[in-house]
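Sample 1 of the test manifest.
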Amino acid sequence: MLLDIVIDGLIKGSVYALLAIGFSLVLGVARIINIAHTALYMTAAYLIYIGAKPLGLSPLVAMLAAVGLTVLLGLVVYRLFIQPIQEHEAAVLIATIAVAMMLQEVFLMAFGGHYLGVPPLVDGFAVIFGVKVTFQHLLALGLALLMLLAVRVFLMKTRLGLAIRATAQDREVANLMGMNVTRVAMTTVAISVGLAAVTGAIVVPLVTVEPTMWMHPLIMMLAIVVLGGLGSIEGSFVGAFLLGFAESLVVFLVPMGAFLKDSVALSIMILVLLIRPEGLFGVSFEEER
Amino acid sequence: MGMLDAYIRRFLAVLRTEILVLPSRMAVVVFVLLLLALPLVTQDGYVLRVMILTAIFAILAASWDLLSGFTGQMNFGHALFFGVAAYVTALLNLELKFPPYLSIPLGAVGGVLTGLVVGIPCLRLKGSYLALTTLAFPIILLGLVFAFPGVTGGELGLSGLSRLTGSRTGDYYLITGLMLALGGVMWKITDSNTGIILHAIREDELAARAAGINTTRYKLLAFCLSGFFAGIAGGLYAHFLRLAGPSTLEVSLSFQVIIWAVFGGMVSIYGPIAGVFILNPLMEALRVVLERFPGLPEMRMFIFAGLVLVTLLFMPEGLVPWVRDKIETECPRCKIRNAFTRRRCRVCDAALD
Amino acid sequence: MKRHGWIWRVWLGLLLGLALAGTALAAEPIKIGVLGPMAFTQGEGHWNGASMAAEEINAAGGVKVGGVNRPIELVKVDTNEFLSIPDATNAAEMAISRHKVDFLVGGFRTEAVLVMQDIAMDAKKVFIGCGAAHPELCTRVTKDYDRYKYWFRLTPINSTYLGKVDFILLGTVAAIMKQTLGLEKLKVAIIAEKASWADPIVKAAETMLPEKMGMEVVGTWRPSPVAKDCTAELSAIQRAGAHIVFTTFSSSVGLTFAKQWGELKVPAAAVGINVESQKSGFWEATSGKGEYTLTVNTYARVKITDKTIPFYDKYLKLYKEAPNYTSGTYDALYILKEAVEKAGTTDSDKVVAQIEKHDGIGTAGREVFDKSHDITWAPGYVTSIGSQWQDGQMVCVWPINWEGVTYEGAVPYKLPPWVVEHWKK
């Protein structure tokens, strides 16, 4: 039973972590609360479906193409609709909501409310300490951990990563230091959307593809980012696993209340914030003016 | 006779000096008159229903502005106040048989208490933390709604509330009248001393505190006030549809409120109201138009979102402030607003532009 | 083009009427509003079923009212009820006050249907529900007959009857398991989405199974109707050692569950209600992993009545999809036609009196409404069926010899091979 919880929580947590890190990068660097983040994740899922089912591409090709197209879409949207109004915080916020709604409606128009599915890359399941886990889940876990590692190395060891971190800390000073903040922001958006798309690619065989599939991960992702501390990669990581485990715990310990798993996860977030208003790993910054 | 005569003269004077001088004030008067005259033109149940719902949502959007616009406490979960009040109103009406004129205000009190409960923990949070935390509350409550179907009716909600007035036209006048009155009250609040303090908190909380203002108390007050007005909207909604259901707490409603308010123009009260009165009937107009093209898929929401997106590109501050800046200019010397047609300020006679 | 076809037909009918009878009465169409979430499968079902019936009726001359043949005109009303309740009410109001429809059919999400029902009753319009299963809708008729008498429910059977069929299916599978695997006492895991229509079924299962059916309940899980992941529930069910998992799903969680159940080869036969597995897209959406899922259903390609197979085939041919229970609007239109013809008017009160007396063979069985204006469920009436996915096909596996009812074309139930493997001694 404990093992079931650990394994289930690990898988959920790793997917949430990927989403949360992408989201918090853009929030940190470009100061955008991107509500459309998970809608882009959904876009990747739909594109993979289109590639794999109606077009009959090999799943791997479909996934690569989908990730590329989604990143492109993300950049176009950013350039056309977000960048011009960047100074207006509230406007940016509803612009991202509007983008998310449009994506939802596009897929609703194209495919209706039908629940679609993509076959797994690898069939079958493994038995780990008596717990059945599908190979696809294991693959997802492995890929997610790999991606997390890659992001970490990128941010810590490369010049671009340094620039992103610097911009996140203080936009103006970074600009003064001669960094092209706009370009850094563009790059960050591309990376963030890319992470969302990769997450979509990883989970698409595990979930049902439908036009409102972005809502639930959005809420969990926001909760994780706040729980972990805004802009903190470690925080998102720990927060994701915390909430992932919380969800599994509820299902195993209170089966009659399985539907409450979101509520419980969100309550945990609020409790943590009551004790640490800046989240687990957030910097308790002096009052910004 | 002399009395009446004096009143009329006074009225005309006010009309000439206070209203006709500014296009925006004329617009407000015309808007109010049109609203009140609508049932004289049409008794169509559909049109009146759309306008009633629009008025209810206008109260909701304005109440969001009171909290998030003026005080800067970004609320992503405004549906919470609306939903709690709808449920409280429904329970009072169904279980204790309270008539609407009691159940709706008491439902709004529920909204105030919710404001307190949510406001206190949220006081410690700032900016994005606050925004994202408030999003969580209605979702948690939604879980509770499903956990106690005996009280809340689960996904069915509570149905069969008593009617407001019994006639559609009556409902229309009641709700539109309330919307105008409450909109006026909210506008007055923001124009009062309290409103200025709230505004100061938004601009610079530290400075406000340094000026000796208990910002905590004022922020809490904003939560409660906003909860109250949103609560009235929730109660009216429950009685009008005769249903309080989980849809009143959904995330999509919270998002919708933000869209209405920001689209119309934040920090103005009338902006969000205008936003609702433009966007909501527009959605219904689209329904009527698109019906002529049965071959097209359902695209109302798509057009809606696209329109919002494109509008923002040109008017990132919202529609109403943009229009206001086009039709009025601010006097550079005394900061009094003037109609765009004037060359000189109407008060201090300074040259405009 | 379609519209023009319409106009031609109306004109032709008019001319013929003029020429033959010499009466100058214009054949004013009878307007029927079809309410449903048109962007979703459920709404498509409503619309397709109704369109098919309307075209057939019009081709055969329309509805004879007082010597005049009146064609049927459908009004497509998108309620968008999954996403917005106010939208649904606006749409219903528009159908009544703008389009001046004579009758309404359809509706799906109970929260929305309750409000739309009130709107229809205010306007005294006959509303035949084809989608919402909650008993409350019909309880209202018994509580306040004069106000709610214009409401009828055609599909699905209400949740009490649904529960009965549910237990019969469970009993059938249990008997097969005991017989083929030589098991003594069966363990059952109950999994039901957290929705109030499922509550009575869960409650009944928790008492019925141990007391009446001699089975042990090893646990009850209530995931959210839109849960995107059931692996936690599934491993818990397997750990509990269940032989059968008793499902009650109407939303997307059913698809998630079935897919992961097949993927993980959980050694418990899935029996119960799973609305997703009633759709033809189910096989594709689960990539075939949902094979062996058994569910209560309304339609399958089986001879429930003489009308079922022709209806099923034509529907499949026209819309590339099998009919689901919201396609019951097809029968609803025929019931309305008959009632209007017998009443000789479209006056709501007179039509209600005729529908109350209705006793006819539809595509889902012999259709008779009871005192609460709910469809009667009984052997020889509407029974509903049990359908299972076998090798890419949705086949009918029940009723076979139940109270003397066997539908021609039904085949025996198959246990999932991995379940047999796991429990074989």
